[in-house]
């Protein structure tokens, strides 16, 4: 059997995103959590929590408890902060799902997501009226956070298939509006939960209680934030994964040349960068090979962003683009704008402050990454749709093919789509659903970055990814 004819068996390879720090599954995920207590969630609970203003997540929230390993007091403070903001976020998501048209919510996939949120809220309610004051309670609470993260690991793919099946009953515009809000809110919820889990796993006080061996401390990390993240290393790791799958699919693979400042480092959340780079390289590899230009290098240029003042940057963004283009609480899914369009009224008050997501200090190193390919560019008729959730435009035949996993239940699947998404969405689950670029842009924009695309039709494409770092964590005033 030739290499081009060889079946593409992605699941057995257990392909994950690149950074071992992110791809790992800690003991909290591996142990069976049989001791988690739940409480029945009532409509009154949901209405009460959904009526409370949401806490707009900032980068300072992720690092204000200190650099690991945390002391007992710091670890308890992190747990109580996490507990103080997650129940309302979950209630807002439940309320927004309930405000979809009834026939849409009745879809079994959408119902599954609704049930998952109810389950997670039911695990938090027993803790909501109390304060976590002991390490024993903190360990139990960390189990609850692990359960929450695992419960929602496939949210994106389940929602995608639910809306695909219900596409006759809701417009593509309404689906896009709902998903933009819901998926951005999910980014924040996962960050909050995973940050506490990471702080828990890297701190020492609970190890004596659990009789766990001490691990070598990783000084580069503050929870899920890598304070010495080197973009060039992420690019190389993602190139290896995408290249191997490309070679399986096409029998050839382009190579990547990294220039600019490959030794540059800054502080950011690596899983975000990994997902975005993977998506962008997938597009570049596919276009390059299909244009038979695999001998042409894909050029990745890494350049530090200027250390601009956040205030100056904020004012300049308003001057150029207006208020609507500045990153706000609404951009993080902190207001239920999508739900409002279905009911004619708001299901929740606006946040107390519609804040820009600002970095920790005036001097905030960031990075711009340009990915240049010779893949022929983007056809003019497709250019304006590159940020759409593509499945919203599927016809019946395309929808049937996607839902069945391709002709023959998966045989025709595009291998370059079969890479795990952020937050654990499985290998086959997102394939062909058109989530890559819009979800990548959501991750880039969440903390004030962005993606811009410039296409030269008939030649190639330049993609510019900008990410603002979290600042100099060791100097920030919150620690």
TrEMBL record:
<keyword id="KW-0496">Mitochondrion</keyword>
<protein>
    <recommendedName>
        <fullName>Protein-serine/threonine kinase</fullName>
        <ecNumber>2.7.11.-</ecNumber>
    </recommendedName>
</protein>
<keyword id="KW-0067">ATP-binding</keyword>
<feature type="domain" description="Histidine kinase/HSP90-like ATPase">
    <location>
        <begin position="268"/>
        <end position="471"/>
    </location>
</feature>
<comment type="similarity">
    <text>Belongs to the PDK/BCKDK protein kinase family.</text>
</comment>
<keyword id="KW-0547">Nucleotide-binding</keyword>
<keyword id="KW-0418">Kinase</keyword>
<keyword id="KW-0808">Transferase</keyword>
<dbReference type="InterPro" id="IPR018955">
    <property type="entry name" value="BCDHK/PDK_N"/>
</dbReference>
<dbReference type="GO" id="GO:0005759">
    <property type="term" value="C:mitochondrial matrix"/>
</dbReference>
<dbReference type="InterPro" id="IPR036890">
    <property type="entry name" value="HATPase_C_sf"/>
</dbReference>
<dbReference type="GO" id="GO:0004740">
    <property type="term" value="F:pyruvate dehydrogenase (acetyl-transferring) kinase activity"/>
</dbReference>
<dbReference type="InterPro" id="IPR036784">
    <property type="entry name" value="AK/P_DHK_N_sf"/>
</dbReference>
<dbReference type="GO" id="GO:0010906">
    <property type="term" value="P:regulation of glucose metabolic process"/>
</dbReference>
<dbReference type="GO" id="GO:0005524">
    <property type="term" value="F:ATP binding"/>
</dbReference>
<keyword id="KW-0597">Phosphoprotein</keyword>
<dbReference type="InterPro" id="IPR003594">
    <property type="entry name" value="HATPase_dom"/>
</dbReference>
<dbReference type="Pfam" id="PF10436">
    <property type="entry name" value="BCDHK_Adom3"/>
</dbReference>
<dbReference type="InterPro" id="IPR039028">
    <property type="entry name" value="BCKD/PDK"/>
</dbReference>
């Amino acid at each position: 059997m030739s290499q081009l004819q060889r079946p593409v068996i992605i699941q057995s390879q257990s392909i994950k995103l690149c950074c071992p720090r992110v791809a790992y599954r800690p003991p909290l995920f591996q142990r069976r959590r049989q001791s988690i207590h739940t409480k029945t969630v009532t409509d009154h609970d949901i209405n009460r929590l959904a009526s409370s203003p949401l806490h707009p997540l900032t980068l300072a929230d992720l690092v204000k408890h200190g650099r690991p390993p945390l002391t007992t007091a710091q670890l308890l403070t992190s747990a109580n902060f996490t507990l103080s903001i997650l129940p309302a976020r979950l209630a807002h998501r439940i309320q927004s799902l309930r405000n979809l048209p009834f026939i849409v919510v009745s879809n079994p996939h959408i119902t599954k997501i609704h049930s998952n949120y109810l389950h997670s809220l039911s695990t938090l309610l027993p803790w909501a009226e109390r304060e976590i004051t002991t390490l024993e309670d903190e360990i139990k609470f960390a189990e609850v956070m692990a359960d929450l993260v695992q419960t929602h690991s496939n949210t994106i793919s389940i929602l995608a298939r639910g809306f695909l099946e219900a596409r006759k009953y809701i417009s593509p515009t309404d689906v896009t509006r709902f998903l933009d809000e819901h998926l951005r809110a999910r980014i924040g919820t996962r960050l909050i939960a995973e940050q506490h889990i990471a702080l828990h796993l890297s701190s020492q006080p609970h190890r004596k209680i659990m009789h766990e061996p001490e691990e070598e401390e990783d000084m580069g990390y503050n929870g899920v934030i890598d304070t010495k993240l080197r973009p060039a290393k992420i690019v190389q790791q993602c190139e290896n994964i995408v290249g191997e799958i490309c070679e399986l699919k096409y029998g050839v693979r382009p190579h990547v040349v990294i220039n600019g400042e490959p030794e540059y480092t800054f502080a950011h959340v690596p899983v975000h960068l990994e997902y975005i780079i993977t998506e962008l390289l997938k597009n570049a590899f596919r276009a390059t090979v299909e244009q038979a230009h695999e001998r042409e290098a894909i050029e990745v240029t890494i350049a530090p962003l200027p250390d601009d003042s956040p205030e100056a940057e904020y004012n300049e963004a308003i001057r150029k683009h207006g208020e609507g283009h500045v990153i706000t609480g609404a951009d993080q899914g902190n207001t239920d704008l999508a739900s409002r369009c279905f009911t004619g009224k708001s299901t929740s008050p606006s946040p107390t402050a519609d804040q820009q997501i600002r970095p920790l200090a005036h001097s905030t190193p960031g990075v711009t990454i340009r990915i240049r390919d010779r893949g022929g560019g983007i056809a003019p008729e497709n250019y304006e749709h590159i940020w759409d959730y593509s499945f919203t435009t599927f016809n019946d035949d395309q929808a049937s093919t996607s839902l069945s996993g391709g002709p023959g239940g998966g045989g025709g699947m595009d291998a370059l789509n079969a890479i795990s998404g952020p937050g654990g969405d499985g290998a086959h689950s997102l394939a062909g659903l058109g989530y890559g670029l819009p979800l990548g842009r959501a991750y880039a924009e969440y903390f004030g970055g962005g993606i811009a695309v410039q296409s030269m039709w008939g030649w190639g494409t330049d993609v510019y990814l900008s990410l603002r770092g979290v600042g100099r964590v060791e100097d920030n005033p919150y620690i």
